[in-house]
Design brief:
Shape: globular
Largest sheet: 9 strands, mixed
Bound molecules: adenosine-5'-diphosphate, magnesium ion
Strand content: 15-25%
Helix content: 25-40%
Length: about 350
């Protein structure tokens, strides 16, 4: 009995993408389907290379197709193509599929730490990632990424630095480190223009933007002028931090930026005996997310290696990938990527994939 394309696609219609809650065929994720006698081969194109469920999807697809009578062998190639919700695309004609702002109510809560580790994780998973340090008051991402300066610029464009597979641009590269940063409207606008149109970003799946803390002029004009596909809010668990975080949530709402979720940082300290000390209280970030009806993206423990990694230019997920804190940061990055896939799918102009063969 010969295996037909219809039979293979019918089998793959039984396999769900767990995050997007649709089957692989409806999502146009199957490519290059080839059938030669009992040999079936195809590619599954995920919506992000940072998909934690890729091996589950692969094995379910394999099981479904192997069950078709006559199939002797199934060869599956896994690939990814990150969709865009269309907001980011086209602005200043930049080929950036998703721009994600990381915001916080105040400084010192770990906004840059989250931005750096999320960017590095997405890049390590195989995505094309840019990191824009737009915190005009405290641009310390170059230090955290171990980069001192930009490569030489071309005649009219800035070339981003690169570290851990991430393209990096920082306002810190453009100003004298010892000079106070006093920003006025026109300067801010020219900085934003420089960040976007004067930088050779190339094609990016994700541009992670570290915003200035708070909801003052600087954060607001940046959030407004960047083509954001989503916003993430970083908070500590305690009440005062949550109050400020709520204002950041409101800022995104007013600017009509989809909120990808809340991250709670410095949630607890693990003691040598294995018990947990809630230094800043606990559960506040999750409650805030619930109240605001936005996703909770995860809690990050207090871990000295995070601070060491930041100061030494080696993000903790690179320096200490074995630690629970690295695991927490990886999961947050994966949830952000999944949230963007879902948002893009809901916008309906998503998945740029067609079935062939
Ligand atoms: N979970 C954590 N455990 C330990 N130190 C942390 C943690 N998160 C952040 N830090 C440290 O706290 C300081 C402030 O974090 P940072 O990311 O610079 O905050 P922000 O960008 O919000 O000002 C940095 O020295 C950083 O390394
Ligand atoms: Mg910072």
């Amino acid at each position: 009995m010969s295996v037909t394309q219809e039979a293979v696609l019918a089998a793959l219609r039984q396999v769900q993408e767990p995050e997007l809650h649709k089957d692989l065929v409806s999502l146009n994720m199957i490519r290059d389907l080839r059938i030669e006698g009992g040999e079936v081969s195809f590619t599954i194109v995920l919506t992000t290379p940072a998909c934690p469920l890729r091996s589950r999807i692969e094995s379910e697809a394999r099981a479904a197709v192997s069950a078709i009578p006559g199939v002797q062998n199934v060869a599956i190639k896994m690939d990814a193509s990150v969709p865009s919700d269309g907001r980011a695309r086209g602005l200043l004609s930049l080929p950036i599929r998703n721009a994600i702002a990381i915001a916080s109510g105040k400084g010192g809560v770990g906004k840059s730490t989250v931005a750096v580790n999320v960017a590095v994780e997405l890049a390590q998973s195989g995505a094309r990632v840019g990191l824009l340090d737009a915190d005009i008051y405290g641009p310390n991402i170059p230090t955290m990424m171990g980069v001192q300066r930009l490569p030489p610029a071309t005649k009219d464009k800035l070339i981003p630095a690169e570290a851990y597979g991430v393209k990096l641009m920082s306002i810190g590269f453009l100003v004298n480190p010892n000079q106070p940063l006093i920003w006025r409207g026109p300067m801010l606008h020219s900085a934003i223009r420089q960040f976007l149109s004067d930088v050779v970003w190339g094609e990016l799946d994700y541009l992670i933007v570290d915003l200035p803390p708070g909801t003052g002029d600087a954060a607001l004009s940046l959030a407004q002028s960047l083509p954001l596909s989503g916003g993430v809010i970083v908070t500590l668990p305690q009440q005062v931090s949550l109050e400020d975080a709520r204002r950041s949530l409101e800022m995104f709402r007013q600017l009509d930026v989809p909120i990808l979720g809340v991250v709670e940082n410095m949630s607890y300290l693990e003691l040598p005996d294995g018990s947990r000390l809630d230094v800043f209280g606990s559960g506040g970030g999750e409650r805030l997310a619930q109240e605001a009806k936005v996703p909770f993206l995860g809690s990050i423990p207090i871990e000295p290696a995070v601070r060491q990694g930041g100061d030494s230019g080696q993000p903790v997920i690179i320096a200490r990938p074995d630690l629970p804190v690295a695991q927490a940061l990886r999961q947050i990055a994966q949830k952000i990527a999944a949230g963007l896939s879902v948002a893009a799918l809901q916008q309906n102009n998503a998945i740029p994939i067609k079935i062939v063969g």
